[in-house]
Amino acid sequence: MASSISKIGVFTSGGDAPGMNAAIRAVVRASAFYEKDVFGIMHGYEGMIDGEIVKLSARSVGNILQRGGTILKSARSENFRTKEGRAQALQNLKRQGIDGLVAIGGDGTFTGLHTFYEEYGIPSVCVPGTIDNDIAGTDYTIGYDTATNTAVEAIDRIRDTALSHNRLFFIEVMGRHSGYIAINSGIAGGAVAVIIPEQEITFDELYSVLEQSGKAHKKSSLIVVAEGSKIGGANELARMVAERSNYFDIKVTILGHLQRGGSPTYFDRVLASRMGVAAVEGLLNGEKDSMVGIYNNKMVFNRFADIMNGQHHAIDGESLRIAKILSI
Ligand code: F6P
């Protein structure tokens, strides 16, 4: 593929997500396929600033496809927010001759790279990798499917014990400001209610759902709460219910970082592989300051300015409707 780009730098940044290794592998192997040199930048922007840059080859990414985490490590960098930090990063890239970048991460990662592109014009393509599935311009982000499956497996296990003891469980899942993991693990796990930041619900409304389920002779109930819930997290909601009535035997489980680890699902491996190859091909075809996404099962490129203007990947009303109908 004819392109002026000859050396590609790849890095992971922000919270890790299952499938990031598959994406790294795809970027490295696609670069090798098109006979471009490829470098791994360690610890995200921190390694760019500190000059932690290593040459990679098709062989150095063997046997990582199935592994969670990221072999390139990750970080949330405060230094890259400063002009001095970015200037230092540029020097290190220049020293290696890196003239194209692929970043795998979430919106914080993309915002940093957009600023860097505007300052120094190095062609850059982002690959959405975050369990939160909160990025506009793509139907799915890498890691979301695995994290949601992990949450569903945990919910199923909790259901067993909830049923044995006739208990009410509040299960808190990750997602930062997004309710994606919550709504879909809630539907898949048979939750009686799902509390997500995108939907207005009052505590009274939640309580009446519990009363209804009591009247419907449900022996146990599971409520999935997104960590970004605006009416309180799992602990707080459990406390509020207990204060109103001692009818319920209540327990709380916060799934936390276990949702971030583990071997990626087939879906995330394929998504990461497709996105990694697309990112390199996009870069070589002149993409710059953009993000690869999947839309209607096709790889698409979004200009940074079109997706990072405060918008997030919205949850469709259909999912909310389904969750409500099935909780009767
Ligand atoms: O963005 C991924 C995510 O796991 C969010 O769901 C969560 O709010 C956050 O990262 C946790 O970040 P950290 O690992 O830095 O505590």
Question: How large, in whole angstroms, is the Cα Rg?
Answer: 22 Å
Strand content: 15-25%
Percent of residues in helical segments? 40-55%
- Shape field: elongated
Total DSSP E strands: 11
Ligand kinds? 6-O-phosphono-beta-D-fructofuranose
Give the ordered list of helices and strands: EHEHEHEHEHEHEHEHEHEEHH
**Tally of helical runs:** 11
End-to-end gap: 57 Å
Q: Structural class, from secondary structure content?
A: alpha/beta
Q: Whole-number average pLDDT? A: 96
Task: Describe the sheet with the most strands.
Answer: 7 strands, mixed
Poorly predicted tracts of residues:
none
Strand order of the largest sheet: 3-2-1-4-5-10-11
